[in-house]
Amino acid sequence: MTVKEYPGTHTTCPYCGVGCGISINRKSHPGPSAITVRGDTQHPSNAGRLCIKGSALGETLGDRGRLLRPHLHGQATDWNTAMSFVADAFADSIRAHGPDSVAFYLSGQLLTEDYYVANKLMKGFIGTANIDTNSRLCMSSAVAGYKRAFGADAVPCCYDDLDRADLVVLTGSNAAWTHPILFQRMQAGNAKLVVIDPRASATAELADLYLGIRPGSDTALFNGLLYFLAQHQHLDNHYIQHHTSGFQEALTSARTWSLQQTALHCGVPAEKLLAFFRLFAETEKTVSFYSQGINQSGSGTDKNNAIINCHLATGRIGRVGAGPFSITGQPNAMGGREVGGLANTLAAHMEFTRDNTNRLGRFWHAPQVALTPGLKAVDMFRAVESGQIKAVWIMATNPAVSMPEAGRVAEALRNCKFVVVSDCVADTDTTRCAQVLLPATSWGEKNGTVTNAERRISRQRPFLQPPGEARHDWQIICDLAQRLGYTKAFDYSHPVEIFREHARLSGFENNGSRAFDISLLENIQRQEYDALQPVQWPVNQDNPQGCARLFNDARFFTDNRRAHFVPVTPQAPLQQTCALYPLWLNSGRMRDQWHTMTRTGRARKLLNHSEIAEIQINPQDARKYNIEEGSLIALNSAQGRMSGRATLSEAQRPGELFAPIHWSETLARDARVSALAAAVVDPHSGQPEFKQVPIQVELLPCKSFATLICPDIVAEKLWQRLNSAKDKNLLHWYRVPCAEGYRYELALRHPLNGRSLGTQLLGDIRGIYWQQIETLKNQRYLAYNNTLQLLIIAGNRWQNLPDRRPLERYLEMELPRVPAKLLRPIAPGVKVLCTCMQVSRTQITEAIGKGLHSLAALGNALGCGTHCGSCKAEISALLRTARVGVAEE
Ligand SMILES: Nc1nc2c(c(=O)[nH]1)N[C@H]1C(S)=C(S)[C@@H](COP(=O)(O)OP(=O)(O)OC[C@H]3O[C@@H](n4cnc5c(=O)[nH]c(N)nc54)[C@H](O)[C@@H]3O)O[C@H]1N2
Ligand SMILES: Nc1nc2c(c(=O)[nH]1)N[C@H]1C(S)=C(S)[C@@H](COP(=O)(O)OP(=O)(O)OC[C@H]3O[C@@H](n4cnc5c(=O)[nH]c(N)nc54)[C@H](O)[C@@H]3O)O[C@H]1N2
Ligand code: SF4
Ligand SMILES: [Mo]
């Protein structure tokens, strides 16, 4: 890879919606390994801090696994051939079946400039609103909730409010893992933390008060709170009277929710609920911070409004340290909302009205602006399945893993007439379904802007040249537009030109009617764009320096300029448990991985926290199904199947399991948790109900286990063989990328007998790749060429296998001799808790045993928890289990 010098580049993290600033520096030698990644001390969101995912970014760079050339039907080709094929397919479909026969499915991980041109092409020029985004799965209920309450998709709060609040209520958010740097800001301030979540998450572990509610019961809880506030004279009557409407109706809906009734419904002790209600009632500076436990529900929009109602009733909005704060997940979820990435909005926060479509037509000189909303994600993939959509382009998202009924979505894509995928990674579940693959640039190469969860626009700046033939997403989209004949409207040569147009549109005939307005930036020059400092919208004549907090004038974007209370009635989850599927499955994020792991899965150290999907189950349930710690289990729903390793945990309420979202079919068998979720959605937002899925659990009857460690090239061939055998003996597998190859972990149905595994695996392939095979005792085999080609270790209990991680590095050595002691069985127990300092759970428990009884003491001795801090919750839990209490630093 050729490296251009950009010394000291300031850019933004490509993962979560916190939007941390990053400083890139380079050592003298070229190549991605010379890059150092540090938190940008000047960036207001993180002031120099980074979580483990951000600080491991350097390890995710490099060409291995990247998509480097366009592909057509599995063969590498050139850009011109690929793009004319794409343009013909889209043009043919539009000509024969109309514009609604084509679709784009985008992502909150695109830059604003990419997103803007995709939306402009689809809604303005092709003339259909069949353009939706993975944000539908993520924050569309938050958008719908804000729109109902404020008349605009406008997030009132900012991070500074978290620093200055006296109470932060986290509902359905595991911020300690999912927004780690924000969570550290909350902890650093004076605020008391209340966590509301059916599972005692890492965030709950660090809370002052934890309410472990019944899944899906949040609307009742906040109705109960509203009624309590009214009963005990905690309302801000002046605010309600002058700045809102609909209070009485909302209160009427809430009135049935007495404290006792609410406690019973939510499954929490009345005293605890009362403690929360009192705390909320008495604390002026309260921020309600909420996320997917609220949004990913069949009644997610109502849940959002139930929370917002309580803030309107107390006038706690638009003030320092107070407000309802829906936190976005992806780095540019907010940017996508600005440009109209969702099928039911237009660009620049315009809704589908005649005035707005006319306005856009005039602004873009667009021939056929879409007049009605398009298909939302779930409906879009249904239309792909039915053949109504004949050509679909998927950008920067992996729907074959992340959509509900993921297996069905993958099947629909495989059967679709024409699927284009642009991705930076070659092998994903979704790229496997495409006829055309287009190589996109990735973080470090891309140039543009993103907007974080507090409306702050930051620059992503390049510091690497694109590898191979990769191109920027905006360039690829404009190429298609040009080939479809829209030459002038898509004639951009640099992202600043797109940004200027986007800024100009935000102010176009706005006159205060639309919240999103960055018109002051409409003439930004390239140098200014390159130097652009993080700024929060609106950025206009009234707010030349941007604006931290919205609605401090209590004027909203509704018809009567008042905020609207929305009366809400609690709804049960759309699907119910039953005799066949008696358990609830909850799903979400792990600390060290990002989504489908196409990037974080490349950083070896990020896999040390958990390398296989760990499914949390209450010990009581585990006993019922004969499941032990570490057993391989499968979960089945009416829609699909997933498997992983059981982790027994009191953090789960009995009857409820939790599985991570990250694993995919490219990494493991039956790995996708979203394959289990039914495609049932919230009626207002179209957001799927991911968090409450009825399932059954099954113990996999594994009688033996094997580990194979081999370089890439051997892995590929070996894998083809293992897979093609369709071996009934193989019950489960997963793989872990290591520096020079892969480690496969297999679970087999039959016990090992004598040399069975050696015969089975080495028998056929002996002599093909390597010269020397050592058959050691106890099912240990080593095959060498010049370097280690294959290491096999097998045993009848996985707990009896040696620690496999130190063995991986023998792949990199010339003529290695794996020391026999490394091959001896030792109980693993080596889960790494502190990824930054590589400190294992065993080391920490031993140190606690030796008398180190606080986070600080452990930090001093071992270094754990002293860097990014994401592991503090787990260390606290170990301290608590050891019954020593946490003596705070
Ligand atoms: N490490 C990491 N961080 C990430 C991401 C990642 O992939 N990895 N992804 C980013 C993205 S895109 C997003 S959207 C955010 C998501 O951030 P979060 O929403 O914080 O993450 P989740 O783990 O999906 O779910 C949050 C919590 O909701 C709880 N929950 C489930 N059902 C209910 C319920 O009925 N009521 C309540 N009150 N809670 C419930 C779950 O138990 C879980 O602890 O994370 C962002 N940050
Ligand atoms: N069961 C269950 N399912 C869920 C959730 C849940 O909590 N439970 N959460 C949902 C939520 S909130 C979200 S946000 C989704 C996330 O799910 P996805 O969006 O499907 O997951 P990612 O792995 O982020 O997919 C991003 C893809 O884009 C590629 N990529 C990265 N950068 C670029 C780029 O610059 N350009 C291009 N062209 N490609 C790029 C990556 O390699 C990757 O293949 O999952 C949803 N699904
Ligand atoms: S908290 Fe972590 S993942 Fe999120 S933006 Fe900051 S460094 Fe990136
Ligand atoms: Mo998300």
UniProtKB/TrEMBL annotation:
Alphabetized UniProt keyword annotations: 4Fe-4S, Iron, Iron-sulfur, Metal-binding, Molybdenum, Nitrate assimilation, Oxidoreductase
Needed co-factor(s): [4Fe-4S] cluster; Mo-bis(molybdopterin guanine dinucleotide)
Protein name as it appears in the record: Molybdopterin-dependent oxidoreductase
4Fe-4S Mo/W bis-MGD-type domain span: 6-65
SUPFAM superfamilies: ADC-like (SSF50692), Formate dehydrogenase/DMSO reductase, domains 1-3 (SSF53706)
SMART domains: Molybdop_Fe4S4
Record InterPro entries: Asp_de-COase-like_dom_sf, BFD-like_2Fe2S-bd_dom, BFD-like_2Fe2S-bd_dom_sf, CT_Nitrate-R-NapA-like, MoPterin_dinucl-bd_dom, Mopterin_OxRdtase, Mopterin_OxRdtase_4Fe-4S_dom, MopterinOxRdtase_cofactor_BS
PROSITE patterns: 4FE4S_MOW_BIS_MGD, MOLYBDOPTERIN_PROK_1
Pfam families: Fer2_BFD, Molybdop_Fe4S4, Molybdopterin, Molydop_binding
Range of residues in the leader sequence: none
Similarity comment: Belongs to the prokaryotic molybdopterin-containing oxidoreductase family. NasA/NapA/NarB subfamily.
